[in-house]
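Checklist before submission:
- one chain only
- standard amino acids only
- sequence pasted in full

Submission:
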Amino acid sequence: MNSPMMNRSVLLAYLATVLYAQKGRLRYLELGTAFNETLGLVAQTVLQAQCFGVDLRPIDPQLPNVRMRAMTTSTYLNEYARQDGPFDLVYIAADHSFVAVKNDFGAVWPLVSQQSLVCLDDTWPDTEANTASGLSGSAHLMADWLAYRYEHV
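Returned file contents:
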């Protein structure tokens, strides 16, 4: 059965295009790049974008507008993100535990530009089985946590 949801990579590439059109620039950060499907599509869709990818085992997409970092998200956010930012679009898709997503969000929030977007992966699992560790994990708990703490979410 086909999912009625839009492919996340296509959605993020579209959002990147809109932000670039509005701002005339784009700094994109992806925490947890896996196979670079999303990072690669954003970088190829908005060629003028500066893209940053962070993963424990990154695969270099061989694109001139992408810089990859092989490290944890907390190391990157504490030691490198300030020099790479501010970010216009952030995609948090690394560790899918509630605590890790909350920590990544909290660390990246002060590093985003005005009129930016922060997108979270796996916050709307379609079945309870998909909340297992290794799948969506407990990342879905972020939706309620954010709604309670941030008025503009």
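Reviewer check: Strands lie at 27-31, 50-55, 66-70, 87-92, 112-120.
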